[in-house]
Design a protein that fits this description.
Blueprint: E1 10-15, E2 21-25, H1 27-33, H2 36-47, E3 61-64, E4 79-85, E5 93-99, H3 103-109, E6 114-118, E7 125-130, E8 133-138, H4 147-158, E9 163-166, H5 169-172, E10 180-182, E11 186-188, H6 193-199, E12 202-208, H7 218-232, H8 255-259, H9 268-274, E13 278-283, E14 293-298, H10 300-306, E15 311-313, H11 315-319, H12 333-345, H13 349-364, H14 370-373, E16 384-386, E17 391-393, H15 396-407, H16 411-416, H17 419-428, H18 438-446, H19 462-465, H20 470-478, H21 490-503, H22 514-528, H23 542-558, H24 563-568, H25 588-597, H26 603-623, H27 635-644, H28 666-680, H29 690-695, H30 699-707
Parallel strand pairs: 1-6, 7-12
Antiparallel strand pairs: 1-2, 3-4, 3-6, 4-5, 7-8, 9-12, 10-11, 13-14, 14-15, 16-17
The chain binds iron/sulfur cluster.
């Protein structure tokens, strides 16, 4: 076929061991794998063999943009990263992560659609890319620095227009929960990929790009952008609904600004603003009209006295330390300080947040103490900020535990290995007392996946509680190669449906109401062709819905589109107040793709490509050892959910979704799993069949599996 537009044309390949810098033609992959997670997964298949461990030099990091990156494609500023994950437990396996910001578009302006990094440098290094040129530079003066100071130093040297991915001390020291930070509010959070960079002696990747991209149909692209801006706007001008004083915004107020409006529960910031402690604003990833990130500019007094830095934050980072189940606190100075230190060390905030739940339970049972952790855990949650006196108190726990985790010292070392390995350690250590195995139960409630692959903090209870769809949501995420949290569940299932209750809350459409069930059924039928899974007990056709969501979410990672924007916070693919029937535009991504590339694909054709990537990912996981026995849940998680009967902690609109009389039957889930395998063309052990791989144009993958006696 003719060359697709919208791509920069080359993928940079860097071997840090030999210093060899080469490129491959993006068109080799573009048609079949589109971009982002698609191309990254294919390259991983070709180059990272199953016997390679996460910290081996032979492991590679595939940072990949897509055809929409760097264009007017709405919410296309995100980048996918695929590599072998050190966080995956107990088997290190393929995993993906995703980061917003503006690195990806500028990588394309510099002439590269992606970056494949392998090998290990002899000494601390960073990669510098500028307009088609690549260099490996000495990072000895950066090694050991936090992510903020490293970025500042790089900006001083290469100019403030440089876009930087960076690791902190946690990544350098190979913490399995190390992230790759970008600016102050974006990161590749899941996967532990900061430690993979650390294992390669790679401190940072810096890009400067001044080039441009050619798109197939510029006029159509501009029209589409204007159309999508309108779809995204949450309310028509001047409208006020529900508990929020809503206002139209495009390129202005964002998510937390929205929540911070009068009537919301986070009122502390209003006090901070009134008292001159901080000023709020918004920022966004490249090309996003939604601006979900809240920026804080602290007063000079606060900065000076408490070492706070200006920065931005979204969602979890804004309140993760306090967690709603622990103490539903307002966003405040101690919380922000926690987030800043965490970012500076380069640690995964979601994973560390799970720790507080374990400590809370552990200290109540006498399992975790100040003596056996070395931390003043009695101070956890007692931190205070006195506005008038500008005084912080009781910060001892925050300061000490983050220092130890970031530097991998004492109990902090065990935490830096990730919660799954931590719980094994506690189990095995008599110093935690005779009750120590009780913590396993709490761990299981937080980490519901019980197989040998891709565990992770669940964040919410959505999988079991949300509406009648929990068989579909469980099926969807049970086979995922990473944690069962927001990326794959909330953004795919929960919020598209729940969010409509927020948009339409003025009409009484609350979760669990009759109107709500009707809307969920209508939506499911419209998009997946069946509404059976929307009706209790919900296991019928659950596999069909799960497959549909897999396709959709792969598409967002391949084009790319931001799933927060498209499926979650704004859910513009599902809902819009601007359309007559209230539905959004599910085909928005396809429309952008065709206008940019000049291709002319139907939605079904795009989804076939996404299914090929999903199947390829599964085939890779299988060659790394994954089987049907790994597609399971632990039941502690379900039992606890049943006890608390609450799912949608902090969901937009504040809705609380209970089980509402629904029951979960493990046997039924097993039936759904088997049907899902059949639907996807996998055998009874969860391995893609030769026939299906060939149908999807993956004959070489089938041959590889055969050669390795997997098939
Ligand atoms: S919604 Fe937020 S995360 Fe998504 S592209 Fe926009 S600013 Fe970035």
């Amino acid at each position: 076929m003719t060359e697709l537009k919208g791509y920069a044309g080359k993928i940079a390949k860097v071997d840090l061991g030999s210093g060899k810098l080469t490129t491959v033609d993006t068109q080799k992959y573009a048609d079949k794998y589109i971009g982002g997670r698609g191309i990254a997964t294919r390259m991983y298949f070709e180059e990272v063999m199953p016997e390679v461990r996460a910290f081996d030099p032979e492991n590679s990091l595939y940072f990949m943009t897509g055809p929409l990156s760097g264009t007017l494609g709405t919410g296309s500023g995100r980048v996918s990263l695929v590599s072998k994950s050190p966080q995956s437990y107990p088997v290190e396996s393929i995993c993906d992560s995703n980061c917003g910001g503006d690195f990806g578009p500028y990588l394309k302006f510099a002439g590269f659609d992606g970056l494949a990094v392998t090998g290990k440098a002899d000494s601390p290094s960073y990669l510098y890319i500028e307009d088609g040129n690549m260099e490996i530079l000495d990072a000895s003066d950066l090694w050991g620095l936090g992510t903020y100071e490293t970025q500042r130093k790089i900006w001083r040297k290469h100019g403030p227009e440089s876009k930087v991915y960076v690791i902190g001390p946690a990544g350098e020291k190979l913490a399995r929960i190390a992230i790759i930070q970008h600016q102050s509010g974006n990161a590749f959070g899941q996967g532990g990929f900061g430690a993979v960079m650390g294992s390669k002696n790679l401190k940072a990747i810096v890009v400067k790009g001044t080039g441009s991209l050619e798109v197939a149909d510029p006029k159509k692209l501009i029209d589409l952008r204007l159309y999508s801006n309108e779809l995204i706007s949450p309310v028509k001008f001047g409208e006020t609904t529900g508990g929020f004083k809503k206002k139209p915004f495009v390129n202005s107020a964002g998510y937390f600004q929205h929540w911070l409006d009068e009537g919301s529960f986070w009122t502390g910031w209003h006090t901070y603003e009134k008292e001159g402690i901080a000023k709020l604003g918004n920022s966004s990833c490249f090309g996003c009209p939604f601006s979900c990130q809240t920026t804080m500019k602290w007063s000079d007094d606060v900065k000076k006295k408490h070492g706070l830095e200006d920065g931005s934050t979204t969602c979890f980072e804004a309140w993760g330390y306090y967690q709603q189940w622990y103490k539903y606190a307002d966003i405040d100075v101690p919380q922000f300080k926690w987030n800043q230190v965490l970012n500076d060390y380069g640690l995964n905030s979601v994973e560390v947040t799970a720790l507080y739940w374990l400590i809370e339970k552990g200290r109540a049972e006498g399992i975790l103490t100040a003596e056996n952790t070395g931390w003043p855990i009695e101070l956890m949650g007692t931190e205070k900020y006195d506005i008038k006196a500008n005084e912080l108190s009781n910060m001892g726990f925050i300061e000490k535990h983050l220092l130890d985790i970031g530097n991998r010292v004492g109990f902090g070392y065990q935490v830096s290995e990730g919660m799954s390995r931590l719980i094994d350690y506690i189990d095995s250590e008599p110093k935690f007392g005779p009750n120590r195995k009780k913590l396993r139960y709490w761990y299981n409630t937080l980490y519901p996946k019980a197989g040998s692959f891709a565990d992770g903090y669940r964040t919410h209870f959505n999988q079991i509680h949300f509406g009648p769809m929990f068989y579909a949501t469980m099926m969807y995420q049970i086979v995922a190669q990473r944690d069962p949290e927001t990326k794959h569940v909330d953004n795919g299932f929960f919020n598209p449906f729940a969010y409509q209750a927020n948009i339409k809350n003025a009409t009484g459409c609350q979760p669990e109401s009759e109107t709500w069930y009707k809307m969920v059924s209508t939506l499911m039928k419209r998009y997946t062709g069946t509404d059976k899974a929307a009706t209790p007990p919900g296991f019928e056709d659950a596999e069909v819905v799960a497959k549909w969501f897999w396709r959709m979410n792969l598409e967002t990672d391949m084009l790319p589109l931001c799933d927060w924007l498209m499926q979650d916070l704004r859910a513009v693919r599902f809902w819009s107040v601007w359309t007559e029937d209230g539905f959004g535009d599910m085909e928005l991504g396809k429309k952008f793709y065709n206008a940019i590339t000049g291709n002319n694909l139907s939605q079904e054709e795009i989804w076939e490509k996404t299914e090929a990537v999903f199947t390829l990912e599964r085939a890779i996981a299988c060659r790394e050892g994954r089987r049907a026995k790994d597609d399971v849940y632990n039941m502690d998680w379900y039992d606890y959910g049943k006890q608390v009967g609450c799912a949608a902690e902090g969901a937009p609109g504040g809705g609380v979704v209970g089980l509402n009389g629904r029951t979960f039957e493990p046997d039924k889930l097993q039936i759904v799993v088997e049907k899902f395998y059949t639907l996807l063309g996998w055998n009874s052990d969860g391995i893609p069949t030769k026939h299906r791989l060939e149908e999807l144009g993956l004959s070489d993958v089938a041959e590889d599996l055969k050669k390795r006696a997997v098939l």
